[in-house]
Structures are given as structure tokens and as C-alpha cells.
From TrEMBL, chains A, B:
InterPro entries named in the record: DegT/StrS_aminotransferase, PyrdxlP-dep_Trfase, PyrdxlP-dep_Trfase_major, PyrdxlP-dep_Trfase_small
SUPFAM superfamilies: PLP-dependent transferases
Keyword Transferase found: yes
Pfam families named among the record's database cross-references: DegT_DnrJ_EryC1
Recorded GO MF terms: pyridoxal phosphate binding; transaminase activity
Protein name: Aminotransferase
Family: Belongs to the DegT/DnrJ/EryC1 family.
Length: 362, 362
């Protein structure tokens, strides 16, 4: 059986270092907002090439905190791709803003820059781009629009730790970025975790306070804040794993290249990238017409898959107000996509076996 | 130096068990929503004597989730004591509800039941009681009011794990309860953590979904949810520590009894309890007229203290809309309280030394 993602194996590679780091936290008796957070956020900011990083509780919180810090709310609109994990959209709803869904293009699955301008109104405050499946959004057009209309650019970088656009890492491409360190992510904690990066110091300080009960120092509350922090244990684990992220991403690229070279099945549409270093292959998503049968076939042949995602946000019960909305590109993607196993711990043999089985599908 | 709270020492007692439990999570490769959560929430529900418990990210989230699950929002009012950690109040604001502050009584520091009824309007939806400093609120009057006006009773039990009222534990006294497992709490994790208890199965299921991106099962989103979950690592640690909670609370009671018997200084007003098993002494709060000088004096004599809390919510910048509000009892408490060291790992000698120094204050 080839697992979709063998997290135990992934983390086992660093088990000694991870145990040591957890041990250090236990020995310190300090579990929150301490040295491990300082070290990890310094290292992560440097990695992304941006001035500030802050650990928070999870990826959804990261996005929500950014929007809250900007003060966006009732009556204001945020542009977001219709094709994303629902969390991008939930963050916007959470703040009382209206998510304005825009179709992706079928080549990158990322938001279609050509369709954004027509959705901008005088209530639009920001464009949230999602670097989906591991591929950085081509930002040129987005920046131009943001400039033209005075909008903030917020990156949802949950799926693309380490990906580049024009030589810059995601997390440094917008005004602020939210990351998820959910265990299954390219950089994953051993529990829920998230992060925010930004070059904007005032925004950074405001987010830090909002995420800490709205306080800038102990018992001094300047905002109606929340609690969203990164445990020292998880910060320590993430600092360990960050050292290996580029290596891990390189291995993902190898496997993706291997798949893209050797999967030759007219029924299976392969993913594409506009630049090799733009993509960190968080998931390897193909499109097939009869997805359910294909998935069952793979399962039968010992290959676990996942679907990112089966149902778009506008077809979820959580958003019945969008029941009439038609998003044909998004809907088609959600009907046809299926994610093949990919991970830094997959062997060449396993990848070869996936190719063989996929090529055998009729 | 006698620390205010020696968390390293507290947790070191179970270090072997905690390391083993963390090891088990590492070995399993499963870090969220797994067996450790199941086990801990079962054990915690049983401990509280209530049907359901759910681990969430922290105590503030726990309260917010309860209010969200009830659907309380804009234009609705929640009654809450003015004398509390600001998180109780932030949870209410977070949902768009109006917190209606009620003064505490000076005997228990808990909400004054006599002052609640006059604050009930046709927009009131719930009474949030806070079992402050470790002492369960006397619920009789609260229940009667809730009955009379059809209000929900929500417990903020962040400071009172294990305390009893009329033979029932906090967490089982209202319609739903929020707990914090912040490291410094009587039951504390090694990071942020929280929990919810309720006998109401429908509410429980709804909260579980809301806290999991609004989904009742994978990729099926029925609410505009958030991400608020308890890491498997923290659930495992909490299950270990829960076994010793009653013992720990018993030791806290001993120290409190010792303080109450031996501190005899007319300048130092001791705390009171209406029933021994009602109080778990999360903090040992005394009132002194010249607090700042008293705190400096203790510090000079090697005794760390803390203040719960220096500034009430209605005097914080986060709530400038309350700048004109006058809450004399609450304000007086905030001016005079100071918390002496108390913890399950304090020795008799240390407690004796605190008594001696406190009695020497003029
Ligand atoms: C664009 C975007 N924005 C915001 C967010 C929100 O970030 P968050 O709040 O941090 O979740 C996401 C999150 N995104 C992900 C989302 O993509 C989805 O990811 P998924 O691939 O379906 O995840 P999964 O199936 O639970 O896990 C992947 C594999 O890993 C295995 N596993 C998992 C766990 C937890 C384990 O302990 N052990 C395992 O072996 C099981 C699976 O085979 O669902 C998650 C809950 C979200 O965090 C996003 O993609
Ligand atoms: C009624 C009520 N409702 C909701 C809540 C919200 O719950 P939460 O979201 O889980 O915080 C609270 C939280 N309540 C507490 C609040 O009472 C206050 O508690 P505190 O006693 O001031 O806490 P502290 O000074 O940070 O820690 C206590 C001692 O422990 C030491 N320490 C601390 C840490 C974190 C450590 O790692 N190592 C240490 O040695 C330092 C201190 O000497 O501030 C916390 C941040 C809140 O979680 C509440 O009281």
C-alpha cells in the first residue's frame, strides 16, 4: 500500500532532533511566547525573505488575524479564488466581510488574473491570492491591480512554503501572508500551527497584540483580541524541520518531474507549471473524467489518493446564499481533480509503481 | 526566592509519563483529532460529571465557540461579571454580542446574584458566570433567573477545574462550560489548550463542527466555522495530569487553609469561601490597601506575586465605549487585590515563610 502521505515516516527522519527540542521545552518550564517562538519566527522570516514573522495557532487564524488587523469588516469585499480550500474563504466571512469569488484558470488552478478587475467595486479592500497546490500565483497583474485600485494583497501561502515568484519566496509577495503548518503541509508541525509574515511593522505589532487577547503587554488590552499563539513545542519542532524544507521540496520536485515525464495516459491530465522554482508540489493534482472509478481503481491497486477538493465553497451548506452562483471552471475542477501520492519520503520504486498503475488505467 | 508558580516543578513530577505520552503520539504519526483527544475528552467529561467534553485550542476559544453555536450575535446581550479576566468578556464581543457587566460581591469576588435581574432586558440571551479564583459561583439564584427569563447559563470554568457546587463539579452546572488549560491553570497543558463541557448533545455536535472548519465530516462544511482543536500531544499530557488533579487541588486547599489560619495582619484581608469543596484555590487573592508597596516589600523578601487583575475590562483601551461606566466594587477589587504564591508543589516551609513575611508587613 502506498500511502497518500506517510507523516510518521516524514517526521521520523528528525525524531532525535524533535525529541531533543521537546525535551528542551520541558526543561525550560516555558511553554508559550518564549525563546522557541523567537527563534522559529526569526528563521522563518529570513527564509521567506521578509522582515517579520509571527507564529499563531493555525492557518485559518493567520488569515483571519491579518484581515482583522487591517480592520476590514461589514460591507467590505475581499477578492478570493473560488477554487481553494474553504479556509481561505472562511477567514473572510469570519471578519464579516464579503468574499468575492473569482474563477481560476485551468492551467495553474490559481486565480485567473484576467477576471479580477471586473469584480472590483468601491467596497473592495483586498485581493487574497492562494498559491494553490504548491504553485505561486503569477503576481504581476495582481500587483498592478492592487496599485491601480489601492487594494491590499494578502497571500494564502498555506500550500506553498518555499515556492518562488521572480526570485522571491511566497510570504514576501504581498502586504501580508498567512501560512498553515498543519501536519500535512510541506512544513508541518505535530499539531495545529500557523504563521504570518509581513514587511509592515505596524501591522505586525497589531497582529501580535490581537492574537494575544488584544494586549500589547501583560494585562494591558488595546484591542478586542483573541487567543491565537504557537506553542513553544511546535515552534521548536518547526525550527528543526525548516532546516530541511528546501531539501524536501527538491525531492517533491523530482517526483513531480518523474510523474510528469512518465505518466502517459490520455485520460489523465497532468499539472503544469510556468517555472520550476515556482512550484513546491504540496499535492500532485491530476484531472480525470471518471474520477470515482479511477480512485477506486488506484485504491484496489494499493495507491491511496485524496481529493483537493470534492465540493467548492459555493456548493457547501455553509454558503447557501451562493446556491445559485455558477462557477463552471471551479465546478469542473472539483469534479475532476484527484491527488496522487507525493512526499519527500516516497521512494523511486513507489513513484515508479504509481506511474505504472496510473498508466494502466483505461 | 519563592516563585509565584513553579510550572517546571509542577510538571516535572510527571515528566516520565509525559515523555512517554508524547512518544506515543510521535510513534502513531497522528497529531490531531485522534485517540488522545478521545481518551482525554472521555476522562474529562466523566471527571466533571457531564455527558460530553471537547478539546479546543484555548479557553477564550471555548467560550466563543459556545456563544457561536447558540447563534448569539449582533443586538443580543450576555450578562457577565465585571470582575473577571478580560477573556470572558472578549468572547462575548467576538460574537458581536453586547457584554452586560454586573458587579461582583466583595465576599466571593464572583458575580453578585442580587444585581443580575435588573440588568436583564428582552435582548438578554445568557448569563455567563465565572468561577473566579477557583471558587464555584453559588448557582441557585442564577438557575432561578435563567428559568424565569429563559436564558442560557454558560460557565467560564477556566479557573476552577474540580470545584464543587452542591456536590456537582463546575462544568456540569450550566448549559455549557468553557475551560482553559493554559499552562498556569490548575489543570494546565504545556501550551495553549481549552475544553468545552455540556450535557446538550446537539450543541456539542454543533460546536465540534464549528471548531473544525464548520464541517461535520471531511470536506463537508455546514457552518462558517473556525479552526480550534486540541493537539494530540496536549490531550495526552492533560490526560496524564488529570489523574492528579484532585490530589493537586487538595494540596492547594491545605496551603490555603494554612494561610487563612496563620496570616494575621490587619492590613491583609483574607479570602473567604462558603464551602470548602467549592474552592480549588487557583489563586490565593488577598486585598491590601497599599498594594504596590506591599508587592515591592514581598519581592524584596523573595516572594513573587501576581495581580489578578490590575485593570478591569471597562478601563481598558479595548473598551473605550465603557470609559464613563462606573463599577466601584470591581474598581476597588482591581486596586487592592494581590495573589500570593500557591501551588501543589509548594512546601510547608515555603508556605510558612510566606506567612511570616506577610505578617511582618506594616
Ligand atoms: C489554502 C489553505 N488555506 C488555509 C488553510 C487552513 O490552514 P489550517 O487552519 O492550518 O488548517 C489550508 C489548510 N488546508 C488543509 C486542507 O488542504 C485539507 O488537507 P488534506 O490534504 O485534506 O489533509 P488531511 O487529509 O487531513 O491530511 C493529509 C494526509 O495526512 C495524513 N495525516 C494527517 C494528520 C492530521 C495526521 O496527524 N497524521 C496523518 O497521517 C492523512 C492524510 O493522508 O484539510 C486540512 C484539514 C487542512 O489543514 C489551506 O490549504
Ligand atoms: C476566567 C478566565 N476565562 C478565560 C480565560 C482564557 O483562557 P485562555 O484563552 O486559555 O488563556 C482565562 C485565562 N486566564 C489566564 C489569566 O488569568 C492570566 O493568568 P496569569 O496568572 O496572569 O498567567 P501568567 O502570569 O502568564 O502565568 C502564571 C505563572 O506561570 C508562569 N509560567 C507561565 C507560562 C505560560 C509558562 O509557560 N511557564 C511559566 O512558568 C508565569 C506566571 O508566574 O493570564 C493568562 C494569559 C490567562 O491564560 C480566565 O482566567
Amino acid at each position: 500500500m502506498i500511502k497518500f502521505l506517510d507523516l510518521h515516516k516524514i517526521n521520523h527522519r528528525y525524531e532525535a532532533e524533535i525529541r531533543e527540542r521537546i525535551g528542551a521545552v520541558l526543561d525550560s518550564g516555558w511553554y508559550l511566547q518564549g525563546k522557541q517562538n523567537e527563534r522559529f519566527s526569526r528563521a522563518f522570516a529570513d527564509y521567506c525573505g521578509v522582515a517579520h514573522a509571527l507564529g499563531v495557532a493555525n492557518g485559518l487564524d493567520a488569515l483571519t488575524l491579518i484581515l482583522k488587523a487591517y480592520g476590514f469588516g461589514e460591507g467590505e469585499e475581499i477578492i478570493v479564488p473560488a477554487n481553494t480550500y474553504i479556509a481561505s474563504i472562511l477567514a473572510i466571512s469570519q471578519c464579516g466581510c464579503m468574499p468575492v469569488l473569482v474563477e481560476p484558470d485551468l492551467e495553474t488552478y490559481n486565480i485567473d488574473p484576467d477576471l479580477i478587475e471586473q469584480r472590483i467595486t468601491d467596497r473592495t479592500r483586498a485581493i487574497m491570492v492562494v498559491h494553490l497546490y504548491g504553485q505561486a500565483v503569477r503576481m504581476e497583474r495582481i500587483w498592478a491591480l492592487a496599485d491601480k485600485y489601492g487594494l491590499k494583497v494578502i497571500e494564502d501561502a498555506a500550500q506553498a512554503h518555499g515556492a518562488f515568484y521572480q526570485g522571491r519566496r511566497v510570504g514576501s509577495l504581498g502586504d501580508a501572508a498567512g501560512f498553515s503548518f498543519y501536519p500535512g503541509k510541506n512544513l508541518g508541525a505535530l499539531g495545529d500551527a500557523g504563521g504570518i509574515t509581513t514587511a509592515d511593522e505596524a501591522l505586525f505589532e497589531k497582529i501580535k497584540a490581537i492574537a494575544n487577547y488584544g494586549s500589547d503587554y501583560k494585562y494591558h488590552h488595546i484591542y478586542k483580541g483573541v487567543n491565537s499563539r504557537l506553542d513553544e513545542i511546535q515552534a521548536g519542532i518547526l525550527e528543526v524541520k525548516l532546516q530541511y524544507l528546501d531539501e524536501d521540496n527538491a525531492r517533491r520536485r523530482q517526483i513531480a518531474a518523474f510523474y510528469r515525464e512518465h505518466i502517459v495516459n490520455p485520460q489523465v491530465l497532468l499539472p503544469w507549471t510556468y517555472a520550476e522554482d515556482a512550484h513546491v508540489w504540496h499535492v500532485f493534482v491530476v484531472r480525470v473524467p471518471r474520477r470515482q472509478a479511477f480512485q477506486a481503481y488506484l485504491e484496489e491497486h494499493g495507491i491511496q489518493t485524496n481529493i483537493h477538493y470534492p465540493t467548492p465553497a459555493h456548493r457547501q451548506l455553509a454558503y447557501t446564499e451562493w446556491a445559485e452562483l455558477s462557477m463552471p471552471v471551479t465546478e469542473r475542477i472539483h469534479e475532476e481533480v484527484i491527488s496522487l501520492p507525493i512526499s519527500p519520503v516516497m521512494s523511486d520504486d513507489e513513484a515508479g509503481r504509481v506511474v505504472e498503475i496510473v498508466n494502466g488505467w483505461r
